[in-house]
Write a structure and sequence with these properties.
The chain has 133 residues and is an alpha+beta fold. It has two helices and six strands; from the N terminus they run E-H-E-E-E-E-E-H. InterPro entries: Cytosol_ACT, HOTDOG_ACOT, HotDog_dom_sf, Thioestr_dom.
């Protein structure tokens, strides 16, 4: 799993207990997962279909730097399934895991559409045929 996105936990992200508010973290995860799905499927029209059990493993506090890791685990005909882990950047301690997130690829009509992808596409492979001028 690659951890690309990092967030700095700020006062506005905290709950009344002084720890990271779960709703803020879930918003960040959904956004990051949607971006990952868009890049993998090559289509900006994707929607969140399903998110499995969310396991809050440990707390995060103000000043912590956290990182979000997402990877594709399955490609369906019109969907992509992802897994997610959030961890503390410095200690590597897990904060949250989501075993399964499903995003659906949509056509211009807003209906599920086949995407034709079968495996993870890495950045290094996306630009290998690019011409540098």
């Amino acid at each position: 799993m690659n951890f690309h996105t990092r967030k700095w936990v700020k006062p506005e992200d905290l709950n009344p207990n002084g720890t990271l508010f779960g709703g803020s973290l879930l918003r960040w995860i959904d956004e990051e997962a949607a971006i990952y799905a868009i890049v993998q499927l090559g289509n900006q029209r994707v929607v969140t279909k399903y998110i499995s059990e969310i396991n809050f493993v440990s707390a995060s506090r103000q000043g912590d730097i956290i990182e979000l890791g997402i990877t594709a685990t399955e490609f369906g005909r019109t969907s992509i399934t992802l897994t997610c882990e959030v961890r503390n950047k410095i200690t590597r301690k897990s904060i949250l895991t989501v075993e399964k997130m499903v995003f659906v690829n949509l056509g211009e009509d807003g209906l599920p559409a086949p995407h034709g992808r079968t495996e993870i596409k890495y950045v290094k492979d996306q630009f290998k045929d690019a011409v540098v001028e």
